[in-house]
Structure formats: structure tokens, C-alpha cells
Design goal:
The protein has 189 residues and is mainly α. Helix content is 79%, strand content 0%. 28% of the residues are buried.
């Protein structure tokens, strides 16, 4: 029971962190300045890009388990983008707040515009945080492994399945990625 509870908490952690970072960026942008908020988002983004580069380098050196671990940290890239978009939506929502003396129609129109903008950008940029493990990290690791190890393992081998099979190893979630990395690492020697 406890393990299931913590698994559910762990799976929602990226969404929580994106939302918290979005609020922090919006608050910082309003209180300190928008340049500060942009710089903070850029630092997180660049850190994620650095993790991506280290992960790729590890894979090229045939350190698959290390490479996958670094690539998983590259979740900061889409997370930073989603948080920046979230912060922008918060700021737009504040800016679109009608003055108290506005007519009911103006208040309704500004509310509808804010809702439409928020719905669109949430769907496009932020919704992915709900499935960050399989979606963001899983698809990134899958693509990198398939690019790096295309043609390296014989058809039907366990290592080839670890690289190319979507069904085996319980998909591309965290546990599946770890097992896949171990199988590929063992096959490389």
C-alpha cells in the first residue's frame, strides 16, 4: 500500500515541480522583474541541455546505465519550457483582470479570452508534465538509444529488444529504462 502511494506521488512530482516553478517565475517576474524570470528559466533550461549532452556522451562511450541516468535528468528541458509558459499564463491572467468599474460584458469577455489562451497553451506545453516519465523522459531515452545502437545487436537478441521493443520491459517508464540500460550494458561487455 505504501509503495503504491509513493509511486503515485513520484509520478505526479514533475507536474508539481512545473507548477511550483511557474508560480515562482511569475512571482519573480512581477516582483523583481521579467528579466529575472527569463534568466531563471534559461538557467534551468541550460542545465537540462547540459544533462542531455553528458548523457549523449556517456552513450557514445558505451556507458549505457550512466547515459540513461543523465538523459533522465534532461527532463529539465521540457520542464523549464512548461514552467515558463505557465508563468506567462499566470502573468497574462493577472494583466487581463478587468478593472473594478468595467462592465459585466467586458469582465466576461476578458475572462473568456484568458480562459481560451490558458486552455490552448496548457494543452500544448504543460499537459505533458502529467506523463513526464513515459512521455518526456521515456521518449527522449528511447530515441537516443535507438539512434546510438541501431544495427549494433543481432535481430531477436535481448539487447536489440531492449533498444527497439516497446512492449518488453514494461514500456519506457523509469523501471523499464533502468532494466533496458542494464541489458544493453551487459551485451556491450
Amino acid at each position: 500500500m505504501t509503495a503504491l502511494l509513493f509511486k503515485n506521488v513520484r509520478s505526479t512530482l514533475p507536474s508539481l515541480l512545473v507548477a511550483a516553478l511557474a508560480v515562482a517565475l511569475a512571482w519573480g517576474g512581477i516582483k523583481i522583474g521579467y528579466g529575472w524570470a527569463a534568466a531563471a528559466a534559461a538557467v534551468v533550461l541550460l542545465l537540462g541541455i547540459a544533462f542531455l549532452a553528458v548523457g549523449d556522451r556517456q552513450l557514445r562511450g558505451n556507458n549505457v546505465t550512466g547515459g540513461v541516468a543523465w538523459l533522465e535528468r534532461a527532463i529539465l528541458v521540457p520542464g523549464a519550457v512548461a514552467a515558463a509558459v505557465g508563468a506567462t499564463l499566470i502573468i497574462i491572467g493577472i494583466q487581463l483582470a478587468p478593472p473594478e468599474d468595467a462592465s459585466a460584458e467586458t469582465k466576461a469577455l476578458l475572462g473568456a479570452v484568458g480562459t481560451a489562451i490558458s486552455t490552448y497553451f496548457t494543452t500544448v506545453f504543460i499537459k505533458g508534465a502529467d506523463d513526464a516519465d513515459e512521455g518526456w523522459s521515456g521518449s527522449l531515452v528511447k530515441g537516443r538509444l535507438q539512434r546510438q545502437f541501431r544495427g549494433r545487436f543481432p535481430e531477436g537478441s535481448e539487447a536489440r529488444d531492449a533498444v527497439f521493443s516497446d512492449e518488453r520491459y514494461s514500456g519506457w517508464g523509469r523501471d523499464g529504462r533502468k532494466k533496458r540500460a542494464e541489458v544493453i550494458q551487459a551485451a556491450l561487455g
